[in-house]
């Protein structure tokens, strides 16, 4: 034998040179490098968010009450965390490194807990990170902002008058009426069975809420009413999908996206462009949110598959640097635990989709002055006037108190402090 594997030295030299050549040729796969990942995922399985009026299962039917993450949901996100650890092995450090990962959640128990379960799957402590041998877990920060200040991950953003106008226009549009007309008798029957007023089933989205409630009750083995047959639940799903498209899409889709999901697209894009301009140690940004977050995002990007996002669904953005130095974005969607994520391609993009091309294509849904487009009045001048009046009133009150005090002292020095 010549060499450990029986190959002549000259052959081994050619193989080595060939490997180097593959890394240097234009388009060589080995030269494509992953630089930064952004994840947007839905929380895991939870309890129902409300009971319909005739529902025999009220809040006390759920161990932790309405809208809380279940043990099923914890397991779903733990498994997603394990998948992410495996997918990005070699990119992320094997152990938790605070410089590499940033996690933000909406300020809901279920999304915060989902992020924590996910991180437990990604980063089981090893070596020096083991702080208690009996607990294979370590605390990792999950950041939030108060719900009153949440403008990035909670949709729809309701403090937008123009968006509310668009939703009303959508519900009155011929396109929506054509889609919903075949279900009018069904809607009346559902109203009778559930106790929801007919108008609330569409205008307030209670049909979607009802579908969700029955889904939760079915998953958790609560007895469903006789009227909630498989056909009824399937029809509720179809109508819910129409309501989703009505909320975020089809009618004046681009303007709606500017006021809703476009803001999240802008933030993700800014994270990537900032990284290209000023590289950091950051490798992954995670947003733990809701089905409506994914819906607003994917409808804004025109990659929505018309299906409601399941629990723990995850939209993946990957920033790569190509062999020619250009940056590109890949998108994937993991909506089933039994299969690998499927690739998503922004309409108008090629593969790979360059960062510049991606930016150009989403520019129509990026808004510079969100408040202005929403029709929100600034109110600074009014606030200034009110503040000025308040200060003036306070000063006048203080002056009156001082004058009164002086008068009292002049009349009766000994009694001036008796009531203090």
Describe the structure.
This protein has 420 residues and is an alpha/beta fold. Helices cover 46% and strands 10% of the residues. The chain has helices spanning 9-24, 71-87, 109-122, 161-172, 174-180, 184-194, 198-203, 206-219, 230-248, 253-259, 262-277, 291-301, 355-362, 370-374, 380-411; strands at 33-42, 101-105, 284-289, 314-321, 327-334, 342-344, 353-354. Strands 1, 2, 3, 4, 5, 6 and 7 form a seven-stranded mixed sheet that branches. Helix 2 (71-87) packs across helix 3, helix 8 (206-219) crosses helix 9 (230-248) and helix 10 (253-259) crosses helix 12 (291-301). The radius of gyration is 29 Å and the shape is globular. The chain starts with 8 loop residues before the first helix and ends in a 9-residue tail after the last helix. 28% of the residues are buried.
């Amino acid at each position: 034998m010549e060499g450990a594997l029986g190959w002549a030295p000259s052959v081994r030299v050619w193989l080595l040179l060939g490997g180097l050549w593959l890394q240097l040729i234009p388009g060589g796969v080995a030269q494509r490098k992953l630089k930064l990942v952004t994840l947007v995922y839905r929380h895991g399985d939870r309890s129902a968010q409300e009971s319909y009026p005739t529902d025999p299962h009220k809040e006390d039917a759920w161990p932790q009450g309405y809208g809380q993450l279940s043990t099923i949901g914890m397991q779903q996100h733990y498994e997603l965390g394990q998948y992410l650890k495996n997918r990005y092995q070699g990119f992320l450090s094997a152990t938790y490194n605070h410089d590499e990962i940033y996690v933000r959640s909406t300020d809901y128990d279920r999304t915060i807990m989902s992020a924590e379960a996910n991180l437990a799957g990604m980063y089981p402590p090893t070596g020096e990170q083991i702080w208690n041998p009996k607990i294979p877990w370590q605390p990792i920060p999950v950041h939030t902002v108060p719900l009153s200040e949440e403008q990035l991950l909670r949709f729809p953003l309701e403090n937008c008058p123009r968006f509310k106008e668009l939703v009303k226009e959508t519900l009155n549009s011929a396109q929506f009426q054509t889609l919903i007309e075949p279900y009018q008798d069904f809607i009346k029957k559902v109203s009778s069975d559930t106790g929801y007023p007919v108008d609330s089933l569409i205008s307030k989205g209670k049909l979607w809420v009802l579908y969700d409630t029955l889904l939760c009750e079915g998953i958790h083995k609560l007895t469903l009413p006789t009227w909630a047959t498989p056909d009824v639940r399937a029809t509720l799903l179809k109508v819910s999908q129409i309501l989703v498209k009505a909320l975020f899409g089809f009618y004046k889709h681009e303007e709606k996206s500017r006021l809703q999901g476009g803001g999240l697209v802008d933030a993700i894009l800014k994270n990537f462009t900032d990284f290209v301009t000023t590289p950091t140690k950051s490798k992954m940004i995670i947003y733990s949110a809701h089905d409506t977050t994914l819906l607003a995002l994917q409808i804004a990007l025109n990659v929505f598959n018309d299906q409601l996002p399941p629990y723990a669904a995850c939209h993946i953005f990957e920033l790569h640097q190509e062999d020619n130095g250009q940056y590109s974005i890949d998108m994937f969607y993991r909506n089933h635990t039994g299969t690998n994520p499927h690739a998503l391609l922004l309409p108008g993009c090629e593969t790979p989709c360059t960062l510049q091309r991606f930016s150009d294509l989403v520019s129509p849904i990026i808004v510079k002055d969100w408040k202005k487009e929403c029709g929100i009045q600034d109110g600074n001048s009014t606030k200034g006037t009110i503040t000025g009046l308040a200060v003036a009133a306070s000063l006048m009150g203080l002056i009156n108190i001082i004058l009164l005090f002086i008068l009292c002292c002049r009349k009766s020095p000994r009694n001036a402090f008796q009531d203090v």
